[in-house]
């Protein structure tokens, strides 16, 4: 088994970390720079920072946020939101990100994934896949874009397979049905994605108990466990999560 990584996620809006439920009902969760430094000190293996309003507001990721956060950490930083071109990727990586995460832009222009992987390396390209349950899709999961606001009638699992073919080095599936609910990762969706790709899969959306993290690995097939609410509101420390996983026989770096 691979070493399992813990990845806190900073959802950004108006220069602050925020957290919602089902992508809405947003509340404040602190300063991004303070949070980033705190999480690295706590033992986070990686950090994600998502500019959740960039696509909806039709603008670029705020580079100053990337610079500020990357300046206080040494762990890998994945940045997403409003990345629509090779120039955007270059600017975000130049501002200090290790990886970029694309969602809507990748769906609208799959060649961007291919070209980005070719120019900057597969390991820098993460494709985030938001989905919701829809029985009319072959897999039962429909792709949703624009910050979770627009279902597009495409099968989410088929899209995950395609993303790896295009050169994505990481796939980050989030279930609209689980986001922010603390009811656990959508294991069925995460596992369906993990079954069709060989690149790392990031479990995302809904972690609320220590058991949820364990299930993300054992039932969801994820190798990276992303969480926001439980860390921002100090339900658990990262060390608590890692010690719990280690006690269950999961490989982690303490």
Q: Explain this structure to me?
A:
The structure is a single chain. This protein is an alpha/beta fold. It has one domain (5-247): Aldolase class I (TIM Barrel), CATH 3.20.20. The chain has helices at 32-42, 63-70, 86-94, 104-108, 111-120, 156-166, 187-196, 210-218, 229-232, 238-247; strands at residues 5-13, 16-21, 24-28, 47-51, 77-80, 99-102, 125-133, 141-145, 150-155, 170-175, 202-203, 224-227. Strands 1, 2, 3, 4, 5, 6, 7, 8, 9, 10, 11 and 12 form a 12-stranded mixed β-sheet that branches. Helix 1 runs parallel beside helix 2 (63-70) and helix 6 packs parallel to helix 7 (187-196). The radius of gyration is 16 Å and the shape is globular. The model has no long low-confidence stretch (mean pLDDT 92).
DSSP summary, beta strand count: 12
The assigned structural class equals alpha/beta
CATH class category label: Alpha Beta
Largest sheet: 12 strands, mixed
Number of separate domains: 1
SSE pattern: EEEHEHEHEHHEEEHEHEHEHH
Proportion of helical residues: 25-40%
Spatial separation of the terminal alpha carbons: 16 Å
Overall residue-averaged pLDDT value = 92
Q: Percent of residues in beta strands?
A: 25-35%
Question: What is the secondary structure topology, with strand pairs?
Answer:
Layout: E1 5-13, E2 16-21, E3 24-28, H1 32-42, E4 47-51, H2 63-70, E5 77-80, H3 86-94, E6 99-102, H4 104-108, H5 111-120, E7 125-133, E8 141-145, E9 150-155, H6 156-166, E10 170-175, H7 187-196, E11 202-203, H8 210-218, E12 224-227, H9 229-232, H10 238-247
Parallel strand pairs: 1-4, 1-12, 4-5, 5-6, 6-7, 7-10, 11-12
Antiparallel strand pairs: 1-2, 2-3, 7-8, 8-9
Helix pairs in contact: 1-2, 6-7
